[in-house]
Specification:
The complex is a heterodimer.
Chain A lengths: L1 H23 L15 H11 L1 H5 L15 E3 L2 E3 L17 H10 L22 H11 L13 E2 L8 H9 L13 H11 L5 H4 L17 E4 L3 E3 L4 H6 L4 H10 L10 H9 L6 H11 L5
Antiparallel strand pairs in A: 1-2, 2-3, 4-5
Helix pairs in contact in A: 2-5, 4-5, 7-12, 10-12
Chain B lengths: L1 H20 L5 H24 L7 H13 L2 H5 L16 H4 L1 H21 L20 H4 L15 H19 L4
The chains are: A mainly alpha, B mainly alpha.
């Protein structure tokens, strides 16, 4: 009996130490100084492709650009995309480009707290310093809005941010953006976009109980998206079965029109209207080329 | 009480049987699904032209535009009487709680379809896509901002751009008023 108590107590102490370790476990590293000159046009384009603008703005309800997005209601709670305007108090006006880089590529706030993966930072990890510099100067053109987005409405235990460190250890995957020399330039460009900034898998890959992507089921669709939305499978075989081709996939990403003569509904409408229709025909063709041949 | 329950059960099951007999949708729900299918067929007929997969045919585009226009506005909204959701229907309750937005989109479908008919003779533009200009001439402010609706002059617009505007109207409406699947 006493041994058991001691043991339990021992585990308790161990647990507390471990927990303390996790809470104070510093995450990731400080990015090196970024001195590159950014290109505003390129940055704005990347902000479109990556969904910064569509997610962090609520145009439908009259919100200003990047002043905070519509709440994302999930099984873990409701997440509100924050204000990313140049306001120093309510936006990111007081940030340095290095802090911005850390937020975007590593998912860590300037205070050192991990962000919830409702923010699709895992897909941005391979952005280059030039990408970051471009994004950064584009963000500098956004007029300040002096109002904060609502606080996330997340209940226990998901409101314990240290828990996200465990999440990161378990489910933070490096994006697969590496080139394959046996494939065409378009395919490789498409791969880097699809698995990187365009973050298709954020919705089109199912997630487990903890919101981690199930990598073995990549692009097999997700029936449980925030807001009761569903994303269909976009594996090459399902796309080919659905009469998708490079040409009509490009067109669908520009217009929302599917090969069957339907128009997308659900969240994909927002993706087309806020992201993909701004993309260059070359980039769209590259993404379509890769998606139709993504398993090889 | 028991009698009432039996009657309700009987009514419910006969409704269910009828519904099944008509492949899921009946009455007004079937009517509007048929209307959507007619428009879908017209989209399917002209979309390959817009994608430059087949030769452009201005007359075919005009007749598709007429089909869209015929099903727009009140012809569209009258197919959605209050309480006609549920069951085989894919409509969301928002159609009734945001009726004026629905009406607006139905009207917009008509306006843009008429515009498409006007633009049909202009043929296709030189580049694919509606927003290509966002990378070129337009200011960065709008690139980082929302989209505004400028004055629309369909007579000088190419058919593919006009068709995109129709398509985006379909998509906007589906995004809010059709169940997500």
């Amino acid at each position: 009996m006493r041994t058991e108590t001691k043991l339990l107590g021992g585990f308790g102490v161990l647990g507390a130490v471990a927990l303390g370790g996790i809470i104070f476990w510093p995450v990731r590293t400080e990015p090196a100084e970024i001195t590159l000159q950014g290109d505003v046009q390129r940055g704005a384009y990347l902000a479109r492709v990556s969904g910064c603008i569509s997610c962090h703005s609520d145009f439908e309800n009259g919100g200003a650009s990047l002043s905070g997005g519509k709440g994302l209601s999930t099984e873990f709670g409701t997440f509100y995309p924050p204000n990313l305007t140049t306001d120093a108090t309510h936006g990111i006006g007081g940030w340095s480009v290095e802090q911005f880089a850390k937020a975007v590529r590593q998912g860590i706030s300037p205070e050192g707290d991990p962000y919830y993966p409702a923010f699709s930072y895992p897909f941005y990890a391979d952005m280059t310093d030039q990408d970051i510099a471009d994004l950064w100067v584009a963000f500098q053109t956004v007029p300040p809005v002096n109002e904060s987005a609502p606080e996330n409405d997340v209940s226990f235990p998901f409101n314990q941010r240290w828990g996200l460190k465990l999440w990161r250890a378990a489910y933070l995957y490096d994006p697969d953006t590496e080139s394959d020399p046996t494939k065409s330039d378009a395919w490789n460009r498409g791969k880097a976009l699809v698995n990187g900034p365009a973050h298709c898998a954020a919705c089109h890959t199912p997630r487990n109980f903890a919101g981690g992507r199930i990598l073995d089921a990549r692009f097999e669709g997700n029936d449980a998206l925030p807001g009761d939305s569903k994303a269909p499978a976009i594996t090459p075989s399902t796309l080919i079965e659905g009469d998708w081709t490079v040409s009509n996939l490009v067109y669908a990403m520009q217009t929302g029109i599917t090969p069957s003569g339907d128009a997308f509904g659900g969240s994909m409408t927002e993706v087309v209207q806020g992201n993909t229709r701004f993309m260059s025909p070359d980039d769209l063709e590259a993404m379509a080329t890769y998606l139709l041949d993504s398993s090889s | 009480m028991i009698k009432k329950t039996i009657i309700i059960a009987a009514v419910t099951s006969s409704v269910a049987v009828t519904a099944l007999a008509h492949g899921g949708a009946t009455g007004i729900v079937k009517e509007r699904m048929d209307a959507m299918a007619v428009m879908g067929n017209s989209v399917k007929a002209v979309a390959p032209m817009m994608r430059r997969e087949v030769d452009y045919d201005a007359e075919a585009v005009k007749s598709a535009a007429q089909v869209f226009a015929r099903h727009s506005g009140e012809a569209m909204t009258k197919l959605f009487p209050e309480g006609s959701g549920g069951g085989a229907s894919e409509v969301t309750p928002e159609v009734w709680s945001e009726w004026s937005k629905f009406e607006e989109l139905a009207e917009q479908l008509g306006a843009y379809s008429n515009g498409l008919a006007l633009a049909a003779d202009n043929g296709l533009g030189t580049s694919m896509g509606s927003a290509g200009s966002m990378m070129g001439s337009s200011s960065t402010d709008s690139m980082m901002g929302g989209t505004t609706t400028p004055m629309i002059d369909f007579t000088s617009m190419t058919a593919d751009i006009a068709f995109n505007m129709v398509a985006q109207t379909c998509a906007s409406c589906h995004a809010t008023f059709r169940e997500k699947e």
